[in-house]
Amino acid sequence: MRPSLRSLQILSIMLSTLSTGLVAQLPIAPRVKAGFNAISESDLRSNLTFIAGDGLAGRMSLQPGDDAAAEWVVSEFIKAGLRPAATDASGKPSFLQPVPLIEYKPDPSATSLSLSRKDSAQQQWHAPAVSCAFRDNVDATGGLVYVGYGITAPELNYDDYANVDARGKIVLLMEHEPQEDDPKSIFNGTGNTRYATSRVKLLNAQRHGAIAVLLMQEPNATHVSTSNRLANVLAGVTTKRLTPIPLQAIANDEVGIALVTISPVVADELLQNSGATAKELQSSIDRDLKSHSREIAGVQLHLQSKNSSTRAATTYNVAGLLPGSDPALAAETLIVSGHHDHNGASEVEEQNGQRHLDIWHGADDNGSGTVGVVELAHAFAANPVKPKRSILFVVFASEERGLLGSYYMAQHPMRPLATTRAMVNFDMIGRDEKPSTQTDGVIEIPADTTNRLNLVGTLYSPDFLHTVQREDEHIGLTLDDRFERDTALGIFFRSDQFPFILHDVPALWFFTGFHPDYHHVTDTVDKIDFTKMTRIVRLSYLTLFAIADEKQTPRFVANPALGK
């Protein structure tokens, strides 16, 4: 039978699509096709070769290589015709938002925790049983209050601070959240809620008047502790970095009290007169979700911590705006983001004593996200039809030091967060997920991840997920929400979308997963899958255009367990 003209058109579209490395089920609408086709694998390759090259020396925050990366992004935003979205120190429009930081180096020998009880000899602990990293020197004295997980969640009818007074005292709390192994838990089942992070717990303790926080691992934990997880990233490394990675914090950050990590032995001693063991207290909370918090009578603590050096310096978020084309909707904002920093360079020493310079190139983390945002800016510029809502293109600073650029922008937004309708964050979009020392025995990795894209944040915006799934019918990626059920790796709050989720912005992290080169010098351009990366950037283009133009924008679900 002779094929119809329509059949020939469909066949032509399919062959054209396959020739570009795509397996698409649906053709691209003409009104967005020019920008879609402008997303180029060759552009991504050439740009990433520069960003992750030796010349930028690993893009360490507050060092020249990272400053050069930020300036390159500025130049690309200008080429794409974006408008400056920030203001400089004199109030003039700028593509650079200054992020004031404190860089500091803790002195472990000057960190101590002393315990005094009536009729008992004073006890004192030092590193590594007690560790503290805070931008200011700490000298705090006060009583002790045990506050469970340190969470106050009114919408869940849960409050670890119920019936205790933490004002002027040091609080002791556990990592993570209650009932993490229970799929039916109100704390997002076996996933995380916004309350799981240490930063949120610090702010909650501060609101309750605490002067410092002692953090202990869960005594009944079925997963690795945070400290062990971080150590596992570098398991197997045979070289010693001779220039330590500096610690950084936002100057005058809203968090004003120190976090001190203590060993289980120290925690058990502090709870000796509490009337229950640490294991019993956790079991009680997990059983009934009631407060089992208590002041530890007769205890006085003295906490000291000093830094051997500090310096104030400024890094920069890079931000450019594509104004919306619809006067009625242009005041509303979508954000697409990545981060431009990585882990720099250092002389290293081999086990045999030989020394040489190593560069942490950060091609996937997060050179891939940086060039992805830039490519999207050019794609929207190339499309004759512009989106109805405005799009803010951002490449954040100092993500590797603790999401500092994104936390700062969330505290000092350039566009109102109340009318920010969605956010797509790129962080590691260039590889296939593979087993590594960080993930072994912790989370299951599918056998074939060559076509897989992980989406993080979907619990808080199922509408957003549905839009991505619909637009993926043009692309054909395998979308995976597996990390929404992770607690051990803490994926949910480990990239720049999270500070905006704290402000009720629907935000998804596009993430191709961990691999053995994560945070190693072997994260290099030659290992990037540029065909897959191109498809991910194209999916984000279609998703952002759809949300920018549709009447209904994604809802933010503040309490996923209750669906509202």
Task: Write a brief caption for the model.
The chain has 564 residues and is α/β, with parallel strands linked by helices. The protein is built from 13 helices and 25 strands.
Structure in words:
The structure is a single chain. With 564 residues, the protein is an alpha/beta fold. The chain has two domains: 302 residues, Aminopeptidase (3-Layer(aba) Sandwich); 198 residues, Glucose Oxidase, domain 1 (3-Layer(bba) Sandwich), CATH 3.50.30. Helices cover 26% and strands 24% of the residues. It has 13 helices and 25 strands. Strands 1, 4, 14, 17, 18, 21, 22, 23, 24 and 25 form a ten-stranded mixed β-sheet that branches. The radius of gyration is 25 Å and the shape is globular. The termini are far apart. The N terminus is likely disordered.
Q: Average pLDDT value?
A: 94
Number of domain units: 2
Q: Given this structure, which CATH class of the largest domain is correct?
A: Alpha Beta
Q: What is Rg?
A: 25 Å
Unreliable stretches, pLDDT < 50, 5 or more residues? 1-24
CATH topology of the largest domain: Aminopeptidase
- Find the structural class using helix and strand composition: alpha/beta
- What amount of the residues lies in strands? 15-25%
What would CATH call the architecture of the largest domain? Answer: 3-Layer(aba) Sandwich
For the record, what is the CATH homologous superfamily label of the largest domain?
A: Zn peptidases
- Give the number of DSSP strands: 25
What's the end-to-end separation, in Å? Answer: 54 Å
**What is the helix content?**
25-40%
